[in-house]
Structure formats: C-alpha cells, structure tokens
Write a structure and sequence with these properties.
The structure is a single chain. By secondary structure, this protein is mainly α. The protein has 3 domains: about 290 residues, no CATH class; about 200 residues, no CATH class; about 180 residues, Methane Monooxygenase Hydroxylase, Chain G, domain 1. Helix content is about 70%, strand content about 0%. The strands form 2 sheets. Strands 1-4 form a two-stranded parallel ribbon. The protein is globular and about 85 Å long.
Length: about 750
C-alpha cells in the first residue's frame, strides 16, 4: 500500500461515525459524578480546584466505559489513584522545566509500556499523562498540590460510589459476552446448512471465557444464568462442525443431509433463544417446531455412524444449554402439548433423554461428559481472576516480556515519550499560553500501530475544530459566568459519554468544547483558548504522525513469525488430540484444552497482525497479502479438522490405535520442520506424513473418524504449503520441495 492510499484510508477511518447502541443511563450516571465534583468545588468558591477535580472525575468516568471485565468501581478507584499520583509528582517538578521534562518523559515511557498489560491499562496510562500536563499549569504550593491530588482521587471515589449506589444493568458486560458467543454459534449453525465447511471465528468464545473470569467476590454474586452456558457453547461448536462435515458427518447429498440441515436450523433457533434469555435475564422461549425437530422421528431419514453420534450429542447439549439458564422455558405460541411453565424445561431436556432411550444415550452422554471434561473445573464452575494487588507480578512479567527493541509496544513507549518531551518544549517556546496542548494532543492520539495513530490524529484535529468553534461561538454570544460555564461543561461531558462509541472525531469535538467551557470557569478568555487549542492540537498531531514515520514499528515484516507461531500452536493442539486418539487411557483432557486455548490466542495474534499489515504503507517482505490470506485459511482449516476429531475422541477404555500413534509420531517432527521453514522462507514437505497416512488409510479401509480427519488435516497442510510456495520470494528461494495438494 502506498503512503497516499494509507493516509487516505486512515483519514476516512478516523472520520467515520458509526451507529451504535447508546447507553443514556450510564452516561447520566457518569455525568452526575463530574457535575457533583464541580459543584462542590464551586460552592467552596475555588474555580481552580473545580477545574482540577473535574479532570479526575472525568477521566475516571471514561475508563469505566471501556470493555473490561473488572468491576467498574475498582476501575474508577484504580485510575483515580494513578491520576492523583501523577498530578502530585508533576506539581513537585513543575517549577523547573528540565526536571519536569525528565519526569514527563519517564512517566510517559511507563504509560506507553502499560499497553503491554492490556488496552484498558494503556488508556489509563494515557490519562495519567494528560492529567500531569493539564493540572500542573494551575499555580499552587506543595500543600495545594496535595489538595489537588486528593480532589482528583475524590472525583474517582464519587464515580465509584455512584456505580455502587445506582447500578445500571449489573453484569451487563458478562451477559453480552456470553450471549454474543451463543449467537455466534447460532449463526455458525445456519451457515453450516449451506456451507458444510464454513469458517468460525473463535473470538466470541474467547471474549466469553474472559467474561467468565471473575474475582472471588464476583463469584459469590454471579447470576445463575452465567454459570453453565459458556461450557456448553464450547462443546456445541465441534459437534456442529462434525455433524455438518461431509467427510466425517452426513453425506453431502441425500435424506441424511436434509435431516442434518433441519437439526442445524433447530440448533440455531435454540441457541438464539438461549442467547436472548441470557442477555436480557428472561425465560427461554422456544418455538414448537424446533422442539419437534430435536426429537427422533418415528419414520423418515435417520442418521448413521459418526453423524448419528453427533446428532445425539447435539440434542443432549442443547437440552443442557436450556436447563442451565435456570429459567422456565416458554413456547412462542400456544400448543396442544402439556403445560409448560417450569415443565417446559423438562420438555427441552426430555428431547435429549429420548434420544438416549433409542441407543444413543451411551454415545451422546458419554461424549458430552468426556468433552466437558476438557477444561474440567473451568467449565464446571468459574475462572478465578486475581485481585488488583495480585496483578502486579503478572503486570511486571508483561512489561519485562515487551522490554525489547523488536517489540512494537516498547517502540511505541519510546516514541510517545520523545514526542511528549519535544511537544512540551515546543509548546513552551511558541508564543501561546497553554503550551501543554501540543504534547497532550500527541499523547492522546498515539497508539502502538500505524493505522490507529494516523486515523486518530486526523479525527482529533477535525473534532477539535468543530468543538472549539461551537464552544467559542457560545462563549462569544452568551458570555457565561462560572456556573453557566460549569453547566455547559457538564452537558459536553454527557454528550461525550453518550456518544463515546460512535467515533473518535465525535468524542474529540465533545472534549474540546468541554475544555473550553471548563477553562471558562477559571476565567480564561475564549478567544485565546480557541486559537491556542486549534494551533497546538495541529502541532501535536503532526508531531505524532511524524514520529511514526521516522521511528516506525511495522507489523508487515513480522507476519511470517506470527504465522509460524500459529502453525506451532495449531500443531501442539493437533498432537494433543491425535495422541489422545492413539492412547485413550493416557488421555489428559486439560492438556488438550490448554493447547486449544493457545491455538486460539495465536490465531488472534495473527489476525490482529494481518489487519495492521494491510493498512501499512510498507512493501511486503516474504509474505504477500494474497499468500497471507491463503495461509491463514489453511491454518484455520487445520484447527477445524482437529476440533472435529476432538468431538469424536474414543472412550478411555477403548483400544489404542497403532495408526493414530504412527501418524502422531510422524506429525511431531514434521511440524517442527515446517515451523522453522515458515520462519526462514523454506519449502514445506509433507511427503513422509502422507506416506504414514496412506498406510493407515489402507489398513482401515477409510473406516473410522480418525483416518478421515487425518486426510483432511493433510489437505490443510498441503494448502498451507501451496499458499507459501505461491509467494514470489518463497518461490525464488526454492519451493520445488513442496508436495502439491492431491486432486
């Protein structure tokens, strides 16, 4: 991508305004916290303290809107504490420019490294830099600095108190995450009806798992609906895939495929109903047609073999998913069947038990129990999240892991620290007041990747123009006093909280107007405020963009390493499943589960890197965009095939499989060689593994799920080799050793 196109796309992205669901009650609650703090300070007759304390309540409120599974009061208090510390330290060094620049650079470096802990921590670190730049411009003594810091913490305390006193949709984030996972699987089931090998993005399941990680206090208060459906969602996905797959499940055409499509449609209906019930804390409402489909027909098409086992397991899992909502099931319209009420749940679960009475119960329930043991205690109860003090060692490990020259987070931290220092010195030299606005604009728009930095820079400047123009016009026409300015500032805060998720340009406009009105409380002239704000914001934005151009951290050159990491994680997952198939008695479900989670994390890292690389004005080095997409598709197929086999693992008392053992034994060194070849741009050769599979397939006569899955896995690996050999640079280095995919 050329620079002109990259800048054009970044500008378009930054100025995009999205339609999203608004949360007016939460916005009102956050605004009330800011208004309460400003009102108390004005009542005491100190406008400077009102300005200072307002930033504390304002910033604490912003963080509570982020997508975090931490309790909102804890977030508000933690951020308020960090804001208070940064404010006090800034006041201590503010009297000496050199000392303050050194402190600013060091603090900004730490704030930039906070992105290694997580996006919420990175945002909180950015807010602490902003508060250090803003509040130290208000003259005071050391005791006054303590008072400012205390008031800033008080602002966060007010926000936390309001969240506790006036909860708005408690557990809403967790409910949404779980409901999104169930709804994603419902959509997956519908797509499988038309495309038996449709892809599935595991991101909703990863978010649901993150949402299920709770503190000990949360675990005691968590609603019953959030206890079990996530584990069922994890187990339903491989069953859906194995039922729809034309090689392992039902044939591609014929009566069995029609029956499979009906089951997939009914499964989608049930999963959507459960998702709606979880999201809104309501009873599950199921149409009678879906219930009827999930019963074994007395006549008509019947499934056979692995597809039959998958169908029994699916029906049993769907019944369990309905039961675990702990709410009565309701029919969507009156029927002639028996009363439902609480007994509707019995109808939903009876479907699964009726399947068992026809001989499938042993298969379905045994498979469900064994599949459910993947992650054991994790699915049965909850994942325990450590308290905030216990996060310190983990945070330090994250910082240490990213403290290397090649890390894009470390380079971001160095970049933003240098820009903050240069911007502050430049703002001091320029003939304007409020010179801190230049470094403030830089820090607020800079992110670890190119696209976000440039898009936010454009959005920040355009939003600032709109915000200061509107606020300046109001100030010029109305000439409001301190209390009216405070009221207008509160209105801007409410608009920003309300429209926060619509786009950065919108929030920048609201923030800019808020700052104009807030400084109007302290008596700052609006003419000077508008002029300074526009010019210095432009300077800060240009500094941020120039810094990334001069000291980039491109993701494009790292794509091969990310792809190799995904192949390695996928390989460990495949080995864990095939070894469990080879030696059922020695199977360790937790090992399979952990390998699956590692594979998901590697896939997420790859997709994030690929998305960043697509927006960078950098020539690809060894992995073209087309090859990257094809390779990603091949590895996603590899994960899907492994997941299908995991859904059909034999019981622990089954006989060992010599063919599976030989396949796993050859797969391990083959994957090690392939991972190294991907990193070093070498050819991939799966001939030895294919020989082992052909011998195994000839011995079994294509009977059983494992040999079929092994063939599908080889096809995916051949697709990976073909994708990488199609890359021009890889072809130049000798891709002649690649085994072509069989037709």
């Amino acid at each position: 991508m050329t620079w002109s196109r990259a800048l054009k796309d970044a500008a378009r992205s930054g100025l995009t305004i999205e339609r999203t669901k608004l949360t007016p009650l939460i916005a009102v609650r956050g605004t009330a916290g800011v208004a309460l703090v400003i009102g108390l300070c004005l009542w005491r007759g100190n406008p400077a303290l009102a300005v200072s304390s307002a930033f504390g309540a304002f910033s604490s409120g912003i963080v509570t809107f982020q997508r975090s599974m931490r309790p909102r009061p804890v977030l508000a208090l933690a951020v308020a504490g960090a804001l208070a510390v940064s404010t006090f330290l800034g006041y201590l060094a503010a009297a000496h420019v050199a000392a303050f620049v050194v402190l600013l650079a060091g603090w900004t470096l730490l704030a930039g490294m906070a992105w290694a802990i997580g996006p919420v921590s990175g945002l909180a670190g950015t807010q602490t830099v902003a508060i250090m730049l803003v509040t130290v411009t208000l003259p005071t003594s050391v005791l006054g600095a303590l008072e400012h810091a205390a008031l800033i913490f008080f602002g966060g305390l007010v926000q936390a108190t309001l969240i506790v006193i006036f909860p708005v949709r408690p557990w809403g984030t967790q409910r949404d995450a779980l409901a999104d996972a169930l709804a994603a699987e419902a959509d997956y089931a519908r797509r499988l009806r038309h495309d038996p090998v449709a892809p599935f993005d595991p991101a909703p399941l990863m978010d649901a798992r993150l949402a299920a990680t709770v503190t000990a206090r949360q675990a005691r208060r968590r609603p019953v609906q959030l206890h079990g459906p996530r584990g069922l969602a994890e187990r339903v996905r491989p069953v859906l895939a194995s039922l729809a797959d034309p090689v392992v499940g039902a044939p591609l055409e014929g009566p069995e495929r029609d029956r499979t499509r009906d089951l997939l449609a009914a499964a989608a209906t049930v999963l959507d109903a459960v998702a709606h019930a979880v999201r809104h804390a309501r009873p599950v409402r199921l149409p009678p047609e879906a219930m009827a489909t999930l019963e074994v027909p007395a006549t008509g098409p019947m499934l056979n073999g692995p597809a039959r086992r998958s169908a029994y397991r699916l029906i049993s899992l769907l019944a369990d998913a309905v039961e675990l909502t702990d709410e009565p099931v309701q029919a969507t319209r009156p029927t002639t069947e028996a009363k439902r009420g609480r007994g509707g749940r019995e109808q939903g679960s009876r479907d699964g038990r009726e399947q068992g009475s026809r001989g499938g119960r042993e298969q379905g329930s045994r498979g469900g129990r064994e599949q459910g043991s993947q992650g054991g205690r994790e699915h049965g109860s909850h994942l325990l999240r450590p308290s905030v003090p216990r996060l310190v060692p983990a945070a330090l490990r994250s910082l240490h892991r990213e403290a290397r020259w090649s890390s894009h987070i470390f380079r971001h931290a160095l970049r933003v620290a240098a820009v903050a220092a240069v911007g502050y010195l430049l703002g001091t030299v320029l003939p304007f007041g409020h010179g801190y606005w230049a470094p403030l604009a830089s820090v607020m728009v800079m992110r670890p990747d190119f696209a976000q930095t440039y898009s936010r820079g454009v959005a920040r400047f355009c939003g600032t123009l709109v915000g200061v123009a509107v606020a300046g016009t109001v100030m010029a026409l109305v000439h409001p006093g301190a209390y009216v300015s405070a009221a207008l500032a509160v209105v801007c805060v409410w608009l920003m909280y309300l429209l926060m998720r619509t786009g950065f340009s919108v929030t920048s406009a609201c923030v800019s107007a808020y700052v104009v009105f807030l400084l109007g409380i302290a008596g700052a002239g609006w003419e000077q405020t508008v002029q300074e704000r526009v010019v210095l914001t432009l300077v800060g934005g240009l500094l941020a963009m120039l810094s990334y151009a001069l000291f980039p951290a491109w993701e494009t050159p790292r794509l091969r390493d990310r792809l190799a990491d995904w192949l390695d994680a996928n390989g460990r997952y495949a080995l864990a499943v095939w070894e469990a198939c080879a030696r059922p008695a020695a199977r360790r479900p937790r090992q399979v589960r952990e390998a699956l989670l590692d594979a998901r994390a590697a896939r997420a890292a790859w997709e994030k890197s690929e998305d960043r690389a697509e927006k960078e004005p950098v020539r690809h080095r060894g992995l073209s965009p087309g090859s990257a997409k094809a390779a990603g598709t091949a590895l996603a197929t590899m994960g899907r095939v492994t997941m299908i086999l995991e859904a059909h693992l034999p019981a622990k008392d089954s006989e060992p499989s010599a063919g599976a053992a030989a396949f796993a034994a050859e797969l391990r060194p083959g994957l090690e060689r392939a991972t190294k070849a991907v990193r070093e741009r070498g050819p991939l050769n799966w001939s030895a593994l294919r020989t082992v599979w052909e011998r195994w397939d000839a011995e079994t006569g294509s009977e059983g799920v494992a040999p079929r899955a092994a063939g599908l896995l080889l096809d995916a690996l051949d697709e990976l080799a073909e994708a990488l050999s199609g890359d021009p640079e890889a072809r130049e280095e000798g891709a002649q050793g690649t085994i072509p995919r069989p037709q």
